[in-house]
Design brief:
The protein is α+β, with helices and mostly antiparallel strands and 335 residues long. The chain has 6 helices and 18 strands.
Length: 335
């Protein structure tokens, strides 16, 4: 028997119009015995048509998507919609309010919590609600991310490839419609606890993004998020008349084919990058040197790229621990 979510709301998902209220996640604590965590939700519906789920704030320190959806929810009116749009601008609300990747309540990462648990801690309960209640009624989804406080990405869109050929083709078309400068497919067999993995389980055509990072947002990255969401909504005919501006440049389609596309710190200390974001590198090339501040005369420990490719992501903070991700590569898809 499938367990039902304990999260409730006043939303009627079948009603036409614009609804703005809160998901109520029961949260009994010392200062509030019968309290609940208020997670903002916006639903716009007009007649029949596809349902698209838009999420941001999956990680609380990733801001481009949050800004884009806060703008979109204020600007849209039901008469412009053909179908239904569901928005969660602050999906992991406790993490969003704290400006943290993980929830300060349970120290959990929402994007490593799917399919979740309706009786679990808050992050697991949120993941369960998204997968069981929202993805179950969606046809399309966009989960907006960036690199957060510890990483910086070249503005990218991404997808976890579906084993369903038709769904995979739809994902590719959505990536092209989003029109980020580059897009990539994450390797099969990767993480299965993410929202994109949950969407694949639900047979929902979904894409994500990595739109910048460094614990902030830029003019460019916010603009890419705003235009990209609108382009996809126009592409899937949920917002058929929305203005998406001039035709964008073609997206560079890439892939990440395995764990060897990532470079990790081999030691503790202060790291020196030996390459820049956006550089093309070769397998065997030195990637970084890690120095020991406690023993400054010691030779630094070098780490190298195991793969050739383009650097699409790099670590931000200068201090590292063994196992911290330093770089992330991608390679162009075969024609």
């Amino acid at each position: 028997m499938t367990r039902k979510s304990r999260i409730t709301s006043e939303i009627d998902f079948g009603r036409d119009g614009k609804q703005q209220c809160f998901l109520r996640l029961p949260h009994s604590i010392h200062r509030s015995a019968y309290g609940w965590i208020a997670i903002p939700i916006i639903v716009l519906k007009n007649g029949t048509g596809p349902t698209v789920l838009l999420t941001a704030g999956n990680h609380g320190d990733e801001y481009e998507g949050q800004l884009a959806l806060m703008k979109l929810c204020r600007e849209l009116e039901p008469e412009t919609v053909c179908g239904r749009i569901i928005m969660l601008p602050a999906a992991n609300y406790p993490a969003v309010i704290a400006g943290l990747r993980t929830s300060p309540i349970d120290d959990s990462n929402l994007n490593r919590s799917f399919p979740g648990d309706p009786d679990g801690r808050p992050t697991a309960a949120i993941a369960h609600y998204i997968e069981s209640e929202l993805l179950s009624i969606a046809d399309f989804a966009i989960d907006l991310h960036s690199g957060g406080s510890s990483l910086m990405y070249l503005p990218s869109a991404l997808a976890t490839p579906s084993e369903d050929d038709q769904l995979a083709a739809t994902q590719l078309n959505m990536l092209r419609a989003f029109a980020a400068p580059l897009a990539y497919f994450a390797y099969p067999g990767g993480e299965d606890r993410t929202m994109l993995a949950a969407a694949n389980r639900a047979k929902v055509a979904a894409i994500g993004t990595e739109l910048g990072g460094s614990g902030t947002a830029s003019v460019q990255s916010v603009a890419i998020a705003e235009r990209g969401v609108r382009r996809v909504l126009k592409h899937i005919a949920v917002l058929p008349d929305v203005d998406v501006g001039q035709d964008p440049l073609p997206t560079r389609i890439m892939e990440v084919c395995g764990s060897d596309y990532y470079v990790y710190s081999p030691d503790y200390g202060l790291w020196e990058p030996l390459v820049e974001l956006g550089d093309d590198v070769c397998a065997g090339q030195a990637a970084a040197a890690v120095y020991c501040p406690q023993t400054p005369w010691r030779e630094p420990v070098l780490t190298h790229f195991a793969q050739s490719g383009t650097i699409i992501c790099r670590r931000v903070p200068g201090l590292v621990e063994r196992g911290d991700c330093l770089f992330h590569l991608a390679t162009d898809c075969s024609p």
